[in-house]
Write a structure and sequence with these properties.
It is a single chain. This protein is mainly α. The chain folds into 2 domains: about 260 residues, no CATH class; about 110 residues, no CATH class. The chain is built from 16 helices and no strands. Helix 1 packs antiparallel against helix 4, helix 3 runs antiparallel to helix 4 and helix 3 packs across helix 11.
Length: about 400
């Protein structure tokens, strides 16, 4: 087996695992572990560049299939697995691997906490106020801004230490017990058309640019004119893009959850109903824009955007490997069949490092060996048209309430 097919097969395994982790209502860490094992195997066998190339391809593939919602669940595996696999191949001790994994996980959790505080809740005032409302009645819990941040800091430390230890134990056991001659996957790989039609849709590049602009505007403030402008643009974009509904249910659920979180946090902090509503609407709109991106561009449209971006970035480490791997991945019926096989393999297993590692080794090895990349045949032919330019131009209109006071 040459390097390319081996890397692509293991990246396929990571894609299946990460999609399951993002879609499952519970247990995302355990469902993402097999994907991490596969990426660690790539780096251990083929080097760090190949490992991170496969990791980037798997993450981008999941975004193309599901959109960017809940991407943080498998992202820690994607960030840490290639490094841990390479460290294991070079004989680095377990404590050093746990330390490296802990450092990356802690930084990731800190960034997520900052996003939650300043984007979802709307600022440190809401975070501190809600903390004091929930803990002040106890009488012995420290209060104030630093106390709230210290609690979040301690929680991030604890979860990073626990998950890093489990992750390293599973990886080491799996990599050391890798079967010498893995057979093909045990399930049937259904065949089916994998086509993408641009008819009735905007160019996915225009969709990506417009969604990025709308997201930047939403992050810039919570004024009612701004929110109303973005909401009106999004309604028009949905109406004219003929978007598919594959990711709408997940986006609607996540948007509602974040909106309720932002509303509750602001009310607990005593910021008033108007401030709470504005922050809740912004949280819902951020998710709605991300959901529209996936629905309007479509899986193959987003894949093509990612392919072209990776080729423009080919001088960056692992970008070339990521582009080559992404070309061979599949988002069709094979992912569904493989996902069901993974769920069947993990459902009865006790959630401890040794049983999990033993359960996933055969599945990961067999699924990777049985995967055959399709020839990269009919690719989307992208062409910017006047409606695409109008879409992007309209996405900028909500910015006028922001710049008008400056003129």
């Amino acid at each position: 087996m040459t390097d390319g097919p081996e890397r692509t097969g293991l990246a396929h395994v990571a894609t299946v695992s990460f999609l399951g982790s993002r879609a499952a209502p519970s247990g995302p860490f355990w469902l993402a572990l097999p994907g991490g094992v596969a990426l660690a195997r790539v780096a251990a066998r083929l080097g760090l560049r190949s490992g991170y190339g496969a990791s980037a391809a798997a993450v981008l593939q999941t975004v193309a299939v599901m959109g960017p919602a809940r991407i943080n669940n498998p992202l820690t595996q994607a960030m840490t697995a290639p490094l841990l696999g390479r460290m294991e191949a070079r004989g680095r001790p377990a404590w050093l691997q746990v330390s490296a994994c802990f450092a990356l996980r802690f930084v990731h959790y800190t960034v997520l906490t900052a996003i939650y505080i300043w984007v979802v809740l709307g600022g440190l005032d809401a975070f501190t106020g809600s903390y004091q409302t929930l803990t002040g009645w106890l009488g012995f819990v420290p209060q104030g801004e630093w106390a709230a941040l210290a609690l979040a800091f301690a929680g991030n430390l604890g979860w990073a230490a626990i998950y890093s230890t489990i992750q390293v134990l599973v990886y080491r056991r799996a990599l050391r017990a890798w079967p010498a001659g893995a057979g093909a996957a045990a399930h049937e790989l259904p065949e089916g058309p994998d086509e993408w039609r641009q008819s009735g849709r905007f160019d996915p590049r225009a969709v990506a640019v417009a969604a990025t602009l709308a997201t930047i505007l939403l992050l810039s403030g919570t004024s009612w004119p701004l929110l109303a402008g973005v909401g009106a643009w999004l309604a028009l974009a949905w109406a004219f893009s003929r978007a598919d509904s594959g990711a709408v249910a997940l986006g609607a659920g996540l948007g509602a959850m974040l909106a309720v979180t932002a509303l509750t946090g602001a009310l607990l902090a005593g910021l008033g109903l108007d401030q709470a509503l504005r922050r809740a609407v912004r949280a819902a709109l951020l998710v709605a824009v991300a959901t529209w991106l996936r629905a309007a561009a479509g899986p193959e449209g987003l894949r093509e955007v990612f392919r072209r971006a990776l080729r423009h970035l080919r001088r960056l480490p692992s970008a070339r490997e990521a582009a080559t791997t992404l070309d061979g991945l599949d988002h069709g019926p094979r992912l569904i069949a493989a996902g069901r096989a993974l769920a069947a393999a993990l459902t009865p297993v006790e959630k401890r490092p040794a049983p999990i590692a033993d359960a996933v080794i055969e599945w990961v090895a067999g699924e990777a060996a049985g995967f055959r990349a399709d020839a990269d045949g009919a690719r989307p032919r992208l062409r910017l048209r006047p409606p695409d330019r109008v879409l992007v131009a309209l996405a900028l209109l909500p910015a006028f309430p922001l710049i008008s006071p400056l003129t």
